[in-house]
Design goal:
The chain is built from 6 helices and no strands. The chain is mainly alpha-helical. It starts with 6 loop residues before the first helix and ends with a helix.
């Protein structure tokens, strides 16, 4: 018998988010709760605030159709990075040793952050596709799209900064 699951559950979107969220803290108890609050503010609060500014400014975004290929190629490159991260994880697991096990934990976090970044990029691509399809080029892009694009782009930027920090941490574990 086939189970009918909602798309977020069926495609693992909830699990991907939880994996990403679990990288925000390595502690437990009250310290973990504070880390999670800081994480929600960092990844969702600041992008929402940045997007909110564009609600009041009423900035009209132009050239969504020109951003679409760039974000799409960038997302494809992140998929390649995810594949390479998987290969590094397999190699570290096979190598064993103290450095490998410490680095493997960082690689697992890196995988979670890259996967989340890809999902955010998908959301940004979907938004840009909607803008391209729904807006009339003669009249310009409706100002209401700008806050959404800014919030998603800012969220993606913050996630990518986390990915860079994880790469640096993994490199330091392996080289020291």
């Amino acid at each position: 018998m086939t189970s009918v699951l909602s798309p977020p559950v069926k495609f693992g979107l909830v699990t991907i988010f939880r994996d990403h969220r679990d990288t925000w803290s390595a502690t437990s108890g009250a310290a973990q709760r504070m880390d999670l609050i800081r994480g929600y503010i960092w990844y969702f609060g600041w992008p929402t605030l940045a997007g909110g500014v564009f609600v009041f400014v009423r900035f009209e975004m132009t050239a969504a159709d020109k951003l679409l290929p760039a974000v799409s190629v960038f997302t494809a490159l992140m998929f390649a990075m995810l594949g390479l991260t998987f290969n590094v994880g397999v190699s570290l697991k096979n190598a064993g040793g103290k450095k490998a096990s410490t680095t493997l934990a960082t690689i697992k976090d890196l995988r979670a952050n890259i996967t989340w970044a890809i999902l955010v990029a998908f959301a940004l691509i979907a938004t840009l596709v909607l803008i391209t399809l729904l807006d009339d080029p003669a009249n310009g892009t409706a100002w209401g799209w700008s806050p959404v694009v800014v919030a998603l782009a800012y969220h993606l930027l913050l996630t990518l900064l986390t990915v860079l920090a994880r790469f640096r941490t993994a490199f330091n574990y392996l080289t020291r």
